[in-house]
TrEMBL record, chains A, B:
It holds the Pfam family Diphthamide_syn. This is 2-(3-amino-3-carboxypropyl)histidine synthase. It comes from Methanocella arvoryzae (strain DSM 22066 / NBRC 105507 / MRE50). It is an enzyme of class 2 (transferase). Catalyzes the first step of diphthamide biosynthesis, i.e. the transfer of the 3-amino-3-carboxypropyl group from S-adenosyl-L-methionine (SAM) to the C2 position of the imidazole ring of the target histidine residue in translation elongation factor 2 (EF-2). GO terms for biological process: protein histidyl modification to diphthamide.
Amino acid sequence: MIDVDGIVRIIEERKAKTIGLQFPEGLKRQGPGIAKDVEARTGALVIVSGDPCYGACDIDDSLLDMVDVLFHFGHSRLMDDDRIVFIEYHHEVEVDTAIRNALPLLGQKVGIVTTVQHIHMLKRMEQLLIEAGKTPVIARGDSRITYPGQLLGCNFSATPAGVDTVLYVGSGNFHPMGAQLSTGVPVIAADPFTGEARKVDVEKIMRQRYALMAKAMDAKKWGIIIGTKTGQKRLELARRIKETAGDATLISIREITPDRLLSFKVDAYVSTVCPRVAIDDAGRFGVPVLTPVEFDIVKGLRKWEDLAFDEIKGE
Amino acid sequence: MIDVDGIVRIIEERKAKTIGLQFPEGLKRQGPGIAKDVEARTGALVIVSGDPCYGACDIDDSLLDMVDVLFHFGHSRLMDDDRIVFIEYHHEVEVDTAIRNALPLLGQKVGIVTTVQHIHMLKRMEQLLIEAGKTPVIARGDSRITYPGQLLGCNFSATPAGVDTVLYVGSGNFHPMGAQLSTGVPVIAADPFTGEARKVDVEKIMRQRYALMAKAMDAKKWGIIIGTKTGQKRLELARRIKETAGDATLISIREITPDRLLSFKVDAYVSTVCPRVAIDDAGRFGVPVLTPVEFDIVKGLRKWEDLAFDEIKGE
């Protein structure tokens, strides 16, 4: 549930006249209803962002420039800007069933990781493991990470090292695969929505990635993609890749789509934007789109067996 | 041909270190080659915009923020910003054949309009009409228009009034239809690329638009789309429409796509962005997307017979 009272309070405190609301895809449909509610209770003019939003790295800067306060929903704080209010979204779903199903798959010393949607249940996760006689370990990530035990799709720094197993509580494949590739420790994924638990398999994704890298070894012309989203700009990294690549063009893109990539006649791309783009959308692109880690492997700067997901690190 | 010497000169004069290049779709493939050339000759770092670009209204602000100078190709100057250099693209194609084929369709007093791609041939167009015994008329548009006789897809103010026929020299349907609807004068389109001339027919497009307006009359929930592109922001207009619409949400969108519109459960949209979006892409949207002019007709603020294309006016 989104706390409209809290939003109204902030608007009144700040005497804000123009308000922006930005939702991730799953919450967007609630936009018009919340906008109407907020307008009726505060008299402020509300504008809802209609552009895609995939994370706290993905602030709608254009909308931000038009409003006094931007409420960004569903993600934990990533940058400090007084004009942006981050409003997390916590799923009201219990984790007990999924964790009980995970227990037989876990070792003794278990690192716990999850996403912000379930972070309020972290104590409960820890307690369930202790009750089962396990030794839970929760680590603090780098400066990009708000909570102990929290993963982002671009940052697995809160994954504990020196454990027998990592328990990922949440849905989806990307986060647990990233955690496994970044630590080498086997990851068990427990999904609170289905109650199911399973061992995470990274083999299929690795096979795909190696095939793309092999194809990119023939590339003569490269495109190096620079993101323009606030939390995804890695210009220095792009510049370094360009120097290694040889015949390469720096290309800035906001949303990466197959037709935007087809506009340029290059043989392969390296994407320095959100690490998920190269991997999640690989099947949609006509040419190989590599992560910076994969580019280093292709250029012999990193060993083939050291494949990991690209991460955007904090400090 | 793009004048790389001129670009190099500007970079040297300004001692610019980081350069942006922004091309419309038709010129994008030239991006990597020009970038390479400019880098080799100036030592500057060049970034090419990979986002779509539909006009001088569509400046890549994110790229602009990363560079010392942004070269924007293919469109005439629309706004004054010292960091942006507009480089027009003039097609090297003769207009004689198309105009000769147009002659039998023209009245005595003929208004001439064209796009920036052919504007350097305006004198030749005038001369051909004089030689054929016609009386050519060329008008100056409002402040959004750089050259006498120049049309934009969002501005037909240079279309002369009080003439028997308007002669449009250029390709495409949108500009001549807009010119005809804005003046009520019959328009003859002469296409220099094919050499053909024809009478412009607005009936089909009007039938489509009336059908969409009829459908939108049942709309209960409205979405009012605000553009975030520099030259397409019409917040005051959007606010005015919202007041008339009743149950309406202001939604900011950068690139309008069918799936972005489907994210919100509204019955119809009014688009205050580039006027072409509502019309060119009508068939792709699941719900009616009206222009502000059409919204006024639906709400009884304008007569049904006064349908015109939406324009973004200058002063």
